[in-house]
Please model this.
Amino acid sequence: QVQLAESGGGLVQAGGSLRLSCAASGRTVTNYAMAWFRQAPGKEREFVAAIIWSGSITYYADSVKGRFTISRDNAKNTVDLQMNSLKPEDTAVYYCARRSPGTWPPTSWKTFGTWGQGTQVTVSS
Model:
């Protein structure tokens, strides 16, 4: 079974940038969806962005459109999230997740069965 591991989180001032990476170990299923979710204390897990591994089809939450970019690196077997123009409301633990083919876009966390451990992103004012 594929294992996921996030990295790249940290503390950044508003307007700054961070690049998160999700490393997928094991055999990659190219038609599966990979996604980034985030969760702040006391709040529901929130969809951020998704990509179909094969074809680089992407989808973004309205709150991050134009600021975040999800991409794949086939050589490194990673899914990355470039985050620019960060805002304090972006502060959360960011998780990557994997899901078998289904509805698109895959915005419900309940449909994902494989998760990474999460990485903290904190944006100060």
Residues 88 and 122 are 7 Å apart (CA to CA). The longest strand covers residues 18-25.
